[in-house]
Design a protein that fits this description.
The complex is a heterodimer of chains A (442) and B (276). Helices cover 73% and strands 2% of the residues of chain A. The termini of chain A are far apart. Chain B has twelve helices and nine strands. In chain B, strand 6, helix 8 and strand 7 form a beta-alpha-beta unit. The longest helix of chain B has 16 residues. Chain B has a six-stranded mixed beta sheet with strand order 5-6-7-3-8-9, sandwiched between helices. In chain B, strands 2-1-4 form a three-stranded antiparallel beta sheet, with helices on both faces. The N terminus of chain B is likely disordered. Classes of the chains: A mainly alpha (442), B alpha/beta (276). At the A-B interface, helix 9 and helix 10 of A face helix 5 of B.
Chain lengths: 442, 276
Amino acid sequence: MIESSEPTRFMSDLVETLALPVRELHLVFFGGAHNTSYVIIAAALLGVAAGLVGCFALLRKQSLMSDALSHATMPGLVSAFLIADAIGGSAKSIVVLLLGAAVSGVLGVLGVHWIVRNSRLREDAAIGIVLSVFFGAGIVLLNYATKHASTPAAGLNHFIYGQTAAMTRPDAITMLAITLVAVVACVALMKELTLVCFNDAFASVSGWPVRRIDLSLMGLIVLVTVAGLQAVGIILIVALIVIPAAAARFWTNRLPTMLAVSAGIGGLSGYCGASLSAVSPKSPAGSVIVLTAGALFVFSMLFAPARGLLPELVRRLRVKLRFAVDHALEHLALTADQSIRARPLPIGRAMRRFLHTKNLISLSDGSVQLTPNGLARGRRVARNHRLWTQYLVQYADIAPSHVDWSVDQVEHILSPELVAELEAAIAEPPTNPPPTQSGVSS
Amino acid sequence: MNPSASADATTSALVSRPEHSVDSPLAVHAMTVAYHRKPVLWDVDYDATAASLTAIVGPNGAGKSTFVKACLGLVPRATGTVEFWGQPFRAVRDRVGYMPQRESVDWDFPVSALDVVCMGRYRKVGWFRRVSRAHRMAAMSALERVGMADYASRQISQLSGGQQQRVFLARALTQEAELYFMDEPFAGVDASTERAILEVLREIRDSGRTVICVHHDLLTVAEYFDRVILLNMRVVAAGATSETLTDDNLHRTYGGRLTLLSEASEQLARSGQRQP
């Protein structure tokens, strides 16, 4: 990699500024090894790139393919090492190693496609086969390299589980450069990738080269995977592609937001993981990065407002509460209008207090009175109840005794438009005119 | 039927047949389509009439969707040719619109109704560029035409089946095509959506353009469509609805006369496999 001194200095300044907090932390504990800053920034950007690419991989249902790909890089990585060692090159040059990894990773993906095309096996089976066979071959080669290569092959181990502490500055810069390319390509191809992910047949008919766009997505996954091999490792890199995207989906229903959130989660994971492992170099960075992402995923799944479990639960409980309030008011309104002697109210003390705080009833010396608001709402529900019952009996031929459950659900959710339609529908048929009740507001 | 024989048949058909008029929006000659060596369409010939509303009708598994997909190059043809206004599909792509089956996409996708409709304009927007205001306005007016303007910013999973179908129709409209293929546009929609879609289709036809729909409801064919293709692995009959939709033709389409054809298909599919 050739760089003029100007951008290099700019880069290093940028890196230093960005990593200031961590450098401080690091200096406090260890007294600064400078290249950790690079590694941390590179890991964060890797997270961003993986987050972006992962969104499209997830939406194209290709997440597992990235697992096959990462495992398939192993034999290429070791082969590149062996070849470079044999011809006397620098066997640990990161560019050479990653090139080898990319080549065999792509071969692995092609293998999956070949199996799917030429057999009746589905993609999951093909991925399982390719993943394990390639990884096995990689392990065998690694054994051979450890015993026979003239360069010590010990460092290759780090590629399996990931080890940021062992990364040098050129390693980090290579990683930075690759991830930058991935980020830029991802942003540039956003529209095209979205279209193919959503509806490839339509894309193809309207003239987009779907295969080529799919290939570029695969290329992006290759870039991210290969860039992340050293930091996160072959086994765990898939997590960095899948988890941020999956977590981001809980936060939003809009793709641009999803991309941003996913990039943020990925970046944060990369940053935290690499920082933590810089502070305690023995901790495996890959696992820490992935665990951070995992924690963010769990948090998102539980608490994200758009699609998280708890907000969903709260929404459902709210609806339940609304139904309960409706029922109580309906009962009270019916009793009030028909001036029947109230049967024991099916309303608990908590509900009474709740209605009171919402200014729907007034409590005077133990008797319950509807406020005008409460009365209007109670009458509305009662009227909806009548309308819907009438409609079901008249149009759906359901016996009056059978409609209770559905009416109890539907009476709360009828919109004014639907109520108007119901009124029209019920008013229309000449047979059996419904008993209209005037003076009830809707 | 062996491959060379069918190839010969194709050639002779092409030679003996007079040149198709360039007015015909779609001309299919001797098209055979096979999935995993199992033919699903045999030697299909068809000439579409311009400015018509045409239904493709036939039983399940008759190859209706396959017919559309093969015309559009979405599934490979074993033999045969398809021409649009006398030209191959590649040359006239921009004049052909497509509305796929609703079930063919994941409606939980994180895009809004307007986003989906904008996809109809992507080709005009071009590589790498963002969707411009003008394209967005075009998408918006297409949504208005199908009565969905109020739902433009809704996420698509929050739409009802009928509304999703309307969004797909709006996307097809923004393609501003002269020939439309629609795969079951009336499938699973409510009565008011059915009316709204039909109205739009008639507008398209009345403006001199052509619509070819896969249709599943025999009861409405005569009312909705002016031309019909009765399909069951081959074209049983095609023409004006009033003349073509006869009891006899329907019986030939839906009845059991073609069992030999499907049996032969099965045998072809098995022919490459080892017999037990």
